[in-house]
Amino acid sequence: MRSRTASQADSPVVPVTCQTGGYALIDSLIRHGVTHIFGYPGGAILPIYDELYKAEVEGKIQHILVRHEQGASHAADGYARATGKVGVCFGTSGPGATNLVTGIATAHMDSIPMVAITGQVPRPMIGTDAFQETDIWGITLPVVKHSYVVRDPADMARIVAEAFYIASTGRPGPVLIDVPKDVGLEEFDYLPVEPESIKMPGYKPTVKGNNRQITQALNLIRDSRNPLFYVGGGAIAAGAHDELSKLAEHFQIPVTTTLMGKGIFDERHPLSVGMLGMHGTAYANFAVTDCDLLIAVGARFDDRVTGKLDEFAAKAKVIHIDIDPAEVGKNRVPDVPIVGDVRKVLSGMLARIDELNIPMVDKRTADWRSRIDQWKVDYPLVAPSDSEEISPQEAIVELWKSAPDAYYTTDVGQHQMWAAQFLKNGPRQWMSSAGLGTMGYGMPAAMGAQVALPGEEVICIAGDASFQMNLQELATLVQYDIPVKTVIINNGWQGMVRQWQEAFYGERYSSSNMEKGMPNFTKLAEAFGMKGMLVTRREELAAAYQEMMEHPGPVLMDILVKRDENCYPMVKPGQGNSQMLGIPEPANRA
Fold it and tell me: Which residue is catalytic, options 19, 38, 51, 69?
């Protein structure tokens, strides 16, 4: 949304006081329940930091000083994914603002609620190429849900209220607020705006699903013999875990998830077929190829999921449920489109089942479930342990055994896909950059999740290349004693790049070897003042993980793994999902 049609509703009568724009911003954030801000100061945003200082002294809010603004945006993102609340990050003008862009784009691609607040040069200097001036409003237009430049401090409270409302409703996403320095300094008669008082007549996301379409969907489910739930991040955002489980169990429908949808359905459940797509399980990809009904829930038919689009679920009718009408029919035209909040739509389906007295149809899907169970036997995920070197897969499997209830973040690459394959996560306990594929995301995101959930175990699974993108945030972990555990799956490569060069580029390994110049990660951790660990033999894994988890502060563990291990299954780009590399020939498929 670009135009602003919002109007402020009648606010409660509050005594008017003379305050600065910076005060109005901090006070508005506190009124919206913000307890933590991740950021880095600079000249243009100093008026805001001055008011932030006062609020911190009073114990109303805490600022986490990151070492790079990208770390701030990823931390706000992790905070939001772990809690469902809006994450908040600060950056100053110019490079401070542009350093936030990668994190803003990451949140945009994965539909994560975030408010990014940037300093800007004073209003009279905008457009003059002043020191540290950038048009961050224009730069971020393609990667935000909405954005503001505050021209009048009297608008600050309303803008903050609108920003939080927009970021957290409908399809969630990041919102930018750019604040010129003189706006932060200017005094005015401040009238707060409470969160519940804001109304935006021009912005009305469809929440409730259409009853006629819900009935049509249930009729398709009732008549289907090979149905499959295909569930994405929209179900996580909506908190639809219970409703999905009830529907899947009532109709005995298998469930596959996207990378963003991990954790929405218990992956230890017999109906789970894990993740589908380029590095999904073989049985999930076979199931989506042979299903006769695909029930897409909060998913967007992404290319890494579908492979060759015209071969994706080619035998199936499609029900597509999503909060964003722009996604419904964008890549695949559904037989039954349902626009609405995923949890409310699934709740409506459950209620309608009772009204229509539709019985459980486990007998109709029994043969289908038996086929999938056989595929699980024929094409299991395997963690190799047949060489002297530790395999990346077994390192991840052993980690999950040591911390099955932890919140996990990842960076991007092979380790990300292995983690997605082998971890069995609960709701909101999986955080990974899916849409943008942002290296360096994992550790600062874990930092944000840990700040949000101080009583939980939070673990970042990183690659040696990805980790080096934002390793400076080790200092933040140490400063605030944030007990994130970071595990580096170290093969000395940009692993996924190396795998593609091996498979598709004649083994020409151009600029993908990371050995030369790689730091000693154990000594690096110690240099930052935290515990560092090195694991080189599989016999050490279990005890090392136990030691890591028992340590009260942050830990960086470096695990040297087999260097040339590839991540399979793998759907070759441009191929259908059933055409996977790295699995036995499916000669015995039913």
Answer: 69
Residues 355 and 429 in one domain: no
Active-site residue (options: 8, 62, 132, 479): 132
Residues 567-576 have a mean pLDDT of 94
Out of 54, 131, 187, 401, the active site residue is 131
Choice among 4-18, 266-280, 302-316, 498-512 with the minimum mean pLDDT: 4-18
Tell me if 587 is assigned to some domain: no
What total of structural domains would you count in the chain? Answer: 3
Specify whether 124 is located in the same domain as 246.
no
pLDDT in tens, 471-496: 999 999 999 999 999 999 999 999 99
Same domain, 354 and 499: no
Looking at the fold, whether 158 and 273 belong to one and the same domain comes out as no
β-pair partners for 39: 65, 90
2 assigned to some structural domain: no
Mean pLDDT of 1-25: 62
Nearest-angstrom CA–CA distance, 480 and 498: 36
Residue holding tokens 């402020």? 8
What is residue 4's predicted lDDT score, i.e. its pLDDT? 37
Q: Can you say how many angstroms the Cα of residue 303 is from the centroid of all Cα atoms in its chain?
A: 17
∠ CA(507), CA(509), CA(514), 5° rounding? Answer: 140
Is position 164 annotated as part of the catalytic site?
no
What is the domain range of residue 355? 211-378
Q: Is 251 a catalytic residue?
A: no
Average pLDDT, the chain: 95
Out of 378, 408, 433, a domain closes at 378
Asked whether 220 and 336 are in contact (CB, 8 A), the reply is: yes
- CATH no. for residue 134? 3.40.50.970
118 shares a domain with 71: yes
CB contact at 8 A, 265 and 257: yes
Distance of CA 218 to the CA centre of its chain: 30
> How many CA atoms lie within 13 Å of 197's alpha carbon, on the beta-carbon side?
18
Whether 181 sits among the annotated catalytic residues: the reply is yes
User: Are 162 and 198 contacting, i.e. CB atoms less than 8 angstroms apart?
Assistant: yes
Task: Confirm if 235 and 342 have CB atoms less than 8 A apart.
Answer: yes
Instruction: Considering the candidates 200, 349, 447, 496, report the single residue annotated as catalytic.
Output: 496
Per the annotation, the verdict on 531 as an active-site residue is no
Residue 198 lies in a domain: no
CATH number at residue 255: 3.40.50.1220
Q: Which of 181, 262, 376, 485 is catalytic?
A: 181
Q: Of 378, 410, 442, which residue constitutes the final position of a domain? A: 378
Q: Is residue 590 part of a domain?
A: no
pTM: 0.95
Residue 42: strand, helix, or coil: coil
Is the pLDDT at 35 greater than 80, yes or no? yes
Q: Look up 69 and say whether it is catalytic.
A: yes
